[in-house]
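Data card: per-record layout.
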Amino acid sequence: MTKPVTATRRQLSDPTEEGKSAADEAWAALRELLARQRRRFLATASELDLHPGQAAALVNMDPAEPRPMHELATQLACDNSNVTGIIDRLEARGLVARQTYEQDRRVRHVVLTPLGARLRGRLLAQVGSAPAGLERLSAAEQRQLRDLLRRVASS
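The structure for this 155-residue chain is written out next.
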């Protein structure tokens, strides 16, 4: 009787596994980089006493321009009701304020307060910079990577 063949965890996640294309290997490396960045984002949000959804809302807001709440919901890929809860908590901390949109009083815009803009700045200072590994690339390699990722993202 033969033993069943089972794959180890390493074999299942190894991007160099036989049969993988260069695109599959690149995607595996990019997924790992994104997972590391997500951990960095979550740790920073926690340090700033923000729920990840609150931190994401702050990152997606422009200090100079109010955002309609439905746009923020789309950007965060969540329901309008979820954004309402996120904005409620940010507003309770004095980080955002709601404004009525002059052209349509039913639409509510969210604007960062000065305190919210400062906290957003701290958040972006910690998570908005390139990961440490990119500095090992030459300036030309960094530009090439940027251009390649832009091409992929625009597809």
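Known properties of this structure: Residues 20-129 form a domain with the Arc Repressor Mutant, subunit A fold (CATH 1.10.10.10). The mean pLDDT is 88.

See the next section for split statistics.
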